[in-house]
Amino acid sequence: MAAWAAMTEPGHWVAIGLGANLGDCGQALGQALKAIGGLTGTRLLAVSSLYSTAPIDSSGPDYLNAVAAVRTTLQPLALLDALQAIELAAGRERPYRNAPRTLDLDIELWGDERIALPRLSVPHPRMHERAFVLVPLAEIAPERVTPAQLQAVAGQGICLAHKPGWHLRQA
């Protein structure tokens, strides 16, 4: 579907950050994308390349990260609940803040809206500090990231792990 057509279909444009650093990370992220695309009223529009990044404010192995853009008719908390259910199904545990994880799914952007709820803040409050969000987001939605934002995170270690389409090979 042409990009202009995706902008006119019903629902909200949402950017979702994906990450994992425990287990088979590539498979977990691929399965998560399949599950996200299967949510009621939700269609996967774009998926960034897959990037390898060192943990920030955490320990453990390096992460694999990507960003996906979806169009959804779900409301913000309904999407958050669905994403957390996908994390739980992938074995996500929350023993402490920033613990290593089998899967992490974050709502980064909800169109141009600002959301401030006890369970959800959008834009994600730390997305502008994280290369693992900004670099893949700039790949699939360059209008959403400024050169100054990318420059601010240029010192963070981020490496291309797999080019676009990686998720199609994760069966």
UniProtKB/TrEMBL annotation:
Pathway linked to the protein: Cofactor biosynthesis; tetrahydrofolate biosynthesis; 2-amino-4-hydroxy-6-hydroxymethyl-7,8-dihydropteridine diphosphate from 7,8-dihydroneopterin triphosphate: step 4/4
EC number, as in UniProt: 2.7.6.3
Residue ranges annotated for the 7,8-dihydro-6-hydroxymethylpterin-pyrophosphokinase domain, each copy included: 16-142
Domain of life: Bacteria
Gene Ontology terms describing biological process: folic acid biosynthetic process; tetrahydrofolate biosynthetic process
InterPro entries xref list: Hppk, Hppk_sf
Gene Ontology molecular function terms on file: 2-amino-4-hydroxy-6-hydroxymethyldihydropteridine diphosphokinase activity; ATP binding; kinase activity
Keywords assigned: ATP-binding, Folate biosynthesis, Kinase, Nucleotide-binding, Transferase
PANTHER family hit by this protein: 2-AMINO-4-HYDROXY-6-HYDROXYMETHYLDIHYDROPTERIDINE PYROPHOSPHOKINASE
Protein family per UniProt: Belongs to the HPPK family.
Name the record gives this protein: 2-amino-4-hydroxy-6-hydroxymethyldihydropteridine pyrophosphokinase
